[in-house]
């Protein structure tokens, strides 16, 4: 018997919880499904399923094998999809979700270039900083910035490093002085980004966290950036947001001897989703676009 087909039958039986449901899904006879599972158990030399007249359950070996089978079958299906689509021009609507501030600065021109290259792909871009359920909301691809992906049900492909800096306007520093160490921030007015929890604790290095305070907090980095420009306080934000201000001198980076932990821009998509060509080409396009040093 064919090993891959035996894996597919075993996966269907384990996933559905019964031979009857699996045979309906696979359009296979009960007898043939049983033969596949029996052959697979003999091939492996271990029992994968415990069967009784009332119920069916995975053995410990069956649970371990199922986890690996799911990955193998997904890779096989994806390889077949790639091979069959290599000569097909991508088409259809692609729903992309990304952080607000990042998308405003960097995705408009990139999507324009992507659309010129792939005119038959329609892109629907939603910019939001809230946590989303990709499957429930029908999102094909999401961009997120974090230190590590939190959702193990999603594939996370790193696209670019995100550097965080602490900075303030020259006017603020002239009036209030420049802190020499992270602990010195406690004596300054800091602008707090509430989507970074806890907002009043800024980390420098693996074991150096300081508590800061300030009279202005917001869930949007652009608002805090505007406040920093006019000298309200010290800001802690990524260089893709404050890079132009640093280059122009409107803001000055401080505490450069105390680098902050770096983050990563990830492209997220669901496990076991065999990527349509439209999603695959956008992933490849974004990887190429962010291959150089980020802004």
Automatic annotation (TrEMBL):
Superkingdom per UniProt: Bacteria
Coiled-coil positions: none
CDD domains the UniProt entry points to: PBP2_CrgA_like (cd08422)
Name used for this protein in its record: LysR family transcriptional regulator
Keyword line: DNA-binding, Transcription, Transcription regulation
Keyword Transcription found: yes
InterPro entries: LysR-type_TF_proteobact-type, LysR_HTH_N, LysR_subst-bd, WH-like_DNA-bd_sf, WH_DNA-bd_sf
Pfam family, one: HTH_1
Family, similarity comment: Belongs to the LysR transcriptional regulatory family.
Boundaries of every HTH lysR-type domain copy: 1-59
Keyword presence, Protease: no
